[in-house]
Specification:
4 strands; binds zinc ion; about 140 residues; two-stranded antiparallel sheet; mainly alpha
Amino acid sequence: MTIKHCAACGKKFEPRPQARNQTYCSAKECQRERRRNEQNLRRQTKQVSVSNSRNNKDRAGKNAKYMSNYRNRNPAYADANRKLQAARNQKRRATVIVNEAASAPSSPLPSGRYRLKPILADGIVSEASWIVEITIISGGS
Ligand SMILES: [Zn+2]
């Protein structure tokens, strides 16, 4: 076991075997200082790491067509993906409708004219619509 000097308090300490690069002792104040320094470092390097991101450069540059070429070379993959995406789209559409149906207004709708769109059996909102006049007869509950 090697003995190190804490970067904060300067006292000798024995690094934990799980963290051999440990530079701060386990004292509460020293751990707090370590976190503060790491946070500052992360804040300072964030911008740099984003602009240096290899993925971002490749997506915009020489590898811009990578996924497009990949799909052309692997039609089975592209087809399976297309079906999965269609299923996700369908699910999202259905979810939106369910939410609309479930969102009853907290107070009763006032009298007035409304546009009424039927929801078809497959859950799709019809493009056809009615303009209806609704008159509230009795007061709200
Ligand atoms: Zn310390």
